[in-house]
Amino acid sequence: MTPREIKEHVDRLARDASWPDCPNGGWQYPFDFGFGIEAPTYTPTQRELHPWRRAVTLSALDRYFEGRYDRISVLDLGAGECAFAAGLWEKGVRDITCVEARDINIEKALFVQNVLGCEFKIVKEDVNKFLENDERTYDLVLFMGLLYHLQDPFNVTKKIAEKTKEISVIETVLACPSEVVFSNNSDYRPKSAAYYIRIENKDGPTAGLSDIELWPTQSALDYTLYNAGFKRLEDIVPEDANINFYSTKQRTLLLAHK
Questions:
Q1: How far is CA 132 from CA 144, 156, 214, in A?
Q2: pLDDT digit string (tens) for 79-132?
Q3: Separation of alpha carbons 217 and 196, rounded Å
Q4: Residue 239 and residue 242: Cα distance in Å, rounded?
Q5: Are 69 and 92 in contact (CB under 8 A)?
Q6: What pLDDT, in 10s, does the model give residues 134-191?
Q7: Which of 198-227 are b and which e, b meaning 16 or more Cβ less than 10 Å from the residue's Cβ?
Q8: Is 6 in contact with 33 (CB distance < 8 Å)?
């Protein structure tokens, strides 16, 4: 493709991704397509946020997979535009399966493959249906920004743990209540482990497939993952992180080890 054709495709895909909250559309990840062409993000915040979370994740994974990226298998659930898959491809991974339900994100991902020269399998399917039918296991599973969009987090995380040979990357928002008081009988003591309902617009390409979100507290997230079968959780957010939401503990980014 010529630089002009690349620019036209990038702009067209951005326009096609518009929704009420972002009428001008955009991309989630600011891909560098060369020739001075960068994908315009939905908001200025995303221009900083998503490259940061990808860089932090890939740096942490280097500690476990450096020198053998070409021998591992990866499953990326809710892969979006496949920014993480593209980053792992650059590191040498050649067995990558991306699962994504939205047509616009798949079209962007195919464009990324074409221009950047990546190759990964893209499956258009709801994550729940994919997990029910897929029979493979993977060395690395990416579960980024998806947990709180699910209405059945316990069963889904159990399926993810079953599919994970070594590590799953978990990224989610967290509910941060200041205090919760219950007036139930004395043996009802849920403490701080809870999921909170939030209503969200499901129309956007980065949203879930339902308008109901379930935000876990930190202790609820920990319990969910341990109950699913993960043995150790490793927080990979740097202590000096200055990215909003992560530095204030309203989001978490961790490696869940089998």
A1: 19, 10, 21
A2: 999 999 999 999 999 999 999 999 999 999 999 999 999 999 999 999 999 999
A3: 8
A4: 9
A5: yes
A6: 999 999 999 999 999 999 999 999 999 999 999 999 999 999 998 778 888 888 877 7
A7: eeeeeebbbbbeeeebbbbbeebbbebbee
A8: yes
In whole angstroms, give the CA distance from residue 178 to residue 77.
Answer: 32
Distance CA 172, CA 246 (A): 10
CA distance 7 to 36: 10
Give residue 180's pLDDT.
Answer: 78
Q: Which two tokens stand for residue 215?
A: 């935000």
Assigned token pair, 7: 């620019």
**Residue 213 corresponds to which tokens in the numbers above?**
């979100």
DSSP 83: H
Q: Are 162 and 256 in contact (CB under 8 A)?
A: no
- Reported as a single tens digit per residue, the pLDDT across 210-232 is 889 999 999 999 999 999 999 99
- Closest Cα to residue 131, out of 139, 123, 121? 123
Cα separation, 250 vs 175, whole angstroms:
7
